Each structure stands twice: as C-alpha cells, then as structure tokens.
Amino acid sequence: MSLSFLALIAAATILFAIAYRLPRSSAGYFASLGLAAVILGIVWSFMSGDEGGPILLAGGVGLVWLHRWARRDQRRRAAVRFARDHGLEFRTKNDQAAQEDFRLFGRGDGGAVRNVMVGRWLDVPVTALDYRYYETRTVWVFYRVKRWRGFSVAVLDVGASVPSVIAERNGASGLAVDYMGFHDVQLNSDEFNRRYHVTSDDREFAYKFFDTAMLTWLMGQQDLLEAELQGRKALVALQLLEPDETAKLLDAAIGFAAHIPRPVRRRYHMPEPVQPPRTYTRERNQGSSVAPS
Fold first, then answer.
1. Mind listing the pLDDT tens digit for each residue in 16-60?
2. If we measure between CA atoms, which residue out of 158, 159, 200 comes closest to residue 181?
3. What is the distance between the alpha carbons of residues 144 and 26, in angstroms, rounded to a whole number?
4. In the chain, is it the N or the C terminus that has fewer CB atoms within a 10 Å radius of its CB?
5. Which of helix, strand or coil describes residue 96?
6. How many CA atoms lie within 13 A of 5 on its CB side?
7. Interatomic CA distance for residues 250 and 244, integer angstroms
8. Which 3 state secondary structure label does DSSP give 263?
9. Residue 283 half-sphere exposure, CB side, CA atoms within 13 Å?
10. What would the pLDDT profile of 193-215 be if each residue is shown by its tens digit?
C-alpha cells in the first residue's frame, strides 16, 4: 500500500470531520474535497498497480459495520436476559410502542424503537424500550449526516385522562423545543426552574401537579431527562442505560406516577398509586431541597 494512498485517505477523514462540525453553508466545500481525496486515492492506487489500498479500505468499512452490528446484538441479548429474569415479554422491534402522542416521539426527522419489554413491574403494567431519533443535516447535495440521540424510555397508564404536562431537563441535547398549543410554566422554585423546563396545555393544572413533593422528587432524579403526562399515559425518559439497569428506569416510572399529588388524583378519579421503590423514597427524603423563590 502506497504512502500516497494513506495520506489521501487521512486527508479525506480530516476533511469529513471538519465538514461534520461546520454550518451547512461551508460544510459542503470540505465534504466535496474529502470525497475528491477518496476518489483520487483509489484512482492513484490502481494507476500505480497497488490494488491493496482500496481493498483494505473496503475491508475496514466492513469491519466497522460488523463491530456496530455486534454491539447492537450484544445489547439485544442483555435485554432478553433482563426480560426473562423479570417475567417481561420481549420484542426486538415494535414500532407500535412509540405511537403515543408524547413530545419525545415526535422529535427529529425519524426514530427507531428497539428492545421493547412489556409486562408488570411492582404489579403495574409498563412498557420499557430503547428509543432513538435522528436529525438530518444536508451539508451538500450528496452529503447528509444523521445525528442520533438515544433514550431509555418507560410508559405506563395512570388510570385517568388528564391535561398534558411536560418537564424536560434544561440543556439536555435535543430537548426544550417549541410545542404548538403548550405554554411555558414558571413554578415557585428558582432551583427547579433552572434545572427543568415545564410546559403544559393547562397552566392551572400544572401548578397543582407540580407540588412540593413532586418538585423534590424530580430534583432527586439525576438521570431523568424528561417526564410527560399525555391523556392516560405517563412517560419518563432517562439517558440511555445498559439493559441490566432497566430496573432503574422502571422504578423511575413508578416513582413519577406515585408522586402525582392527591388532590389531582381525587379531581380526576385516578386510582391510588403503588408505593414507590424504597430507593426513591430515600431520595425524596435526602435529595435536593426545593426552596421557594
């Protein structure tokens, strides 16, 4: 393999990396140069009688794809073990699991659902899944980049239809976007408002929903990125967890539903909550305090 071929491929890699980080107006130029460097390297190799370079390049691309597939399959097998050990039904794919009208499922240009587990957790019907969505950047006619974001998501039924509320972590990648028909809600805790962005289609309901106990519980959830109520369903989304940490996700979903204030439950005839896991009860007592502004 010639040094010229290696130098051109290295230059193409650098140019593509630069294009990925630049705004669309300038990225196309660097992407074009990168593609030209790859083509020139392949042509140069064949003209000099060295076919090993292009063959090695193709093999490297194949190995990268195989590595990604192996990691995905390893995650699937770990999720299967967790589902089997906890009496949950498992499906590798189930697009129906993301059909609810949650804001998270409507983000981006497309999404993918994997490793779906359905069953009962603490005797509550729940669905847990890996959810990824992507945003497409077209930096040139032929050069498009998909930026993926991944979440561990749990969905459960709260037993009654209620107004919609959403609490999302400020600064979390891909969150805090506009949602038509929803209003920003400022609560009586500056600390909470700095950490979470709250929106609702009913401000009065939001003020009742986010009582002191709910605010304290949310402040204690270090991995929580988003919590939503839409109709009869509740959703919690955490940063993408390892499959053997799924209990943490399911406990968070149960804890969120269990902290719905009693006046809200009475007003909407919601059933009594399941007692949240002991770990989350401790977090409620020992977590961040919520100081009214």
1. 666 666 655 565 666 677 667 777 766 666 666 665 555 555 544
2. 200
3. 14
4. C
5. helix
6. 18
7. 12
8. helix
9. 21
10. 999 999 998 999 999 999 999 99
Residue located via tokens 């995650």 = 75
Q: At 223, is the secondary structure helix, strand, or coil?
A: coil
Q: What are phi and psi of 82, to 5 degrees?
A: -65, -45
User: What tokens does 254 get?
Assistant: 């149960």
Least confident of 60-69, 123-132, 152-161: 60-69
Q: Are 235 and 154 within 8 A, CB to CB? A: yes
pLDDT tens readout for residues 144-157: 677 889 999 999 99
In whole angstroms, what is the distance from residue 105 CA to residue 45 CA? Answer: 47
The CA distance from 151 to 215, in Å, is 22
Integer CA distances (angstroms), 66 to 76, 144, 226, 242, in order: 15, 22, 33, 20
pTM of this structure: 0.70
